[in-house]
Amino acid sequence: MDILISNSGGTPIYDQITRQMKGLILRGELAEGEALPSMRLLAKELRISVITTKRAYEELEREGFITTVPGKGCFVAPRNLELVREETLRRAEEHLSQAVEIARTGGVTLSELIETLQLLYGEDEHE
Amino acid sequence: MDILISNSGGTPIYDQITRQMKGLILRGELAEGEALPSMRLLAKELRISVITTKRAYEELEREGFITTVPGKGCFVAPRNLELVREETLRRAEEHLSQAVEIARTGGVTLSELIETLQLLYGEDEHE
DNA sequence: CATACTGTATATACTTGACATATACAGTAA
DNA sequence: TTACTGTATATGTCAAGTATATACAGTATG
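^ inputs. structure came back:
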C-alpha cells in the first residue's frame, strides 16, 4: 500500500490517509469491492496507532467511499458517485452558509458572492 | 451605552460587543464621527477587562467601522459602505474558498454550489 | 475450541488555539 | 501634574483536536 505520511506538514495523519485513499479510489487504483489494508496492518506499516487508521477509515465511510464490516475488513464501496457528490455538497454547504452569514450582515449581495465563487472555482490552485 | 453581555450563550464577549456596535453604527444610532465609549469605561460598565473591549474595537477597526486614535479615543468612521463591503467580501471569500476546495475534490459542480448559495442567501434565519 | 485475523470502545496524554485577564507602558490634553 | 485616552507584555484557563495504549468483540478456519 503506497501511503506516505509526513509528520512535518501540519496536516494531521488521519487526514493525509483519508485524502490519499480517496485519490486511490477515485483514480480506480483501488477497485470497487476490493479490500483496503486492515487498520492494524496499515498502522504497523506507517508506525502509527490503530486508532488513527480507524479514524481515517471512519471518515472515508462517512463520505461513502468505503464500507466497513466488523470482523472482516474495509472494502471499496460500489461507485455511488451521486451519493459521494451529495455528501461533498453537504460539507461544502457548511462553509457556504458561513460565507452567507458574513455577507448579509455586511451588505454584500448575492451576485457578488456568486461572482467570487466563480473566480475561485476557476482557479487551478489546489493547495 | 446600551450593550448587553450574556455569559451563558457561548458567543465570546468580544464578539457580542462587536456585533452590537456594528448594529448601532449601521442603524445610525452612533453617528459618523461620534466617539465610542472609551475602552476603559465600557470595560468598567460591563465589568470585564480592558483587553477584551480592545479586542472588540480592534475587530471593528479591521472591518472599517471605526477609527481609533491612541490617546484620544475611538470614533465612528465615515460611512464608507464600499470599503465595508469589500472587507466583508474578503472575509466571506475565505469560506467560499474552502467550500470550493471541498467541492472540486468531490465532483460537485459550480452550478450546484451556486444553487446552494442562492438557497442559503434566500433563507431568513439569522442564527 | 483455539488461533489469528478483522474492527470497536474506553480512558488517557499532549498540544494548540481561543478567550479573558492584570499590570505596566505610552500618547493627549486640561 | 492629573486624569483621561489607547497599547503591549506576559499569564492563566479552558475546550477542541490529535494521537495513543489497552482491552474488548466479531469472523473465520484448522
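Residues 81-105 of chain B form the longest helix (25 residues). Helices of chain B lie at 13-26, 39-46, 50-62, 81-105, 110-122.
thumbs up if we can close this ticket
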